[in-house]
Amino acid sequence: MGATLPFWLRPHGFSFRWVGAIEFLLATVLFHAGLSFLQARLEERSTLKWPESRLLKYGVMHISLACILGLHLNDSLNLHRGAPSSIFIVYGLCALFVGVLYVVPPLNFCRRVGREVIIAEGLGLIPVLGAYLVQVGDITRTVYLASLPMVVATGLWVWLDELVNRTDDERLGRGTMVILFGPRFSGRYGVLALAVLMFATLLAAVVSASVHPLSLIMLLFGGLAWKIVAMSWTEYSCPDRMMGARKQAFNLHLATCSIIAGSSLWTGLS
Predict the structure, then answer these.
(1) In terms of residue numbers, what domain contains 240?
(2) Total domain count for the chain?
(3) Is 254 among the domain residues?
(4) Backbone angles phi, psi at 30, to 5 degrees
């Protein structure tokens, strides 16, 4: 999505960078994998096949490779006029900070209330900004606005995942907003608020010309959002049935990303 937004926003001097897009995608996957290995090590989820030393080694190795790719991207970046020369380094440090904030003690928000915000930003905002930055060499206000529907869609997906895993999270002593507010409030009003906010941010992005008007095709998925809300309203305390709502939230997340990216790309092809 972040790599296709320039086709709609049309910044001066833009030309698509295939190598940069592939390198950034690879760096993102490596970084996410490294943090996952590191989290498994710090939460003591080792097995005979994956002992603690191996989890730590793979975590450090993947994160290091991601950083090396990031440095190479920084060296080959074509900065937009007026953009700070250190903009990609600052972006990389912010991404690393969010990962450390989520995984590494004593902060390790993966076990604390507020983890939903970290995940929504880490998976819904930061990758979009980075992919755009690699293509354009700058980040503007419009890109932040364009990413908001993805941030909320990610938050909705995570929220429903927490409703499904609420019992296990309580048993393991994890703190989540779903546990804080209780299953009834979270399953009804929390899900409803996030569903409404997702479409509200989409409308705001279209009105501000941050995304293509064709992105309003997402309104056709209002029925799917209503299905998620209706299911959560009555089945919030039943993890087995809530798995269906979580699956639909994933489909809504995928549709949001695909439609915004596809509508931007349509501009470049037309």
Answers:
(1) 5-17+78-269
(2) 1
(3) yes
(4) -65, -40
The pTM score is 0.92
**Both structure tokens of 128:** 């979009």
CA pair distance 212, 259, nearest whole angstrom: 10
Task: Give the C-alpha separation, 105 to 260, whole Å.
Answer: 36
| Alpha-carbon distances of 215 from 11, 186, 264, rounded to whole Å | 19, 28, 8
What is the full per-residue pLDDT of the chain (270 aa) written as tens digits? 999 999 999 888 888 999 999 999 999 999 999 999 999 999 888 888 899 999 999 999 999 999 999 999 999 998 888 889 999 999 999 999 999 999 998 888 988 999 999 999 999 999 999 999 999 999 988 999 999 999 999 999 999 999 999 999 998 888 899 999 999 999 999 999 999 999 999 999 999 999 999 999 999 999 999 999 999 999 999 998 899 999 999 999 999 999 999 999 987 776
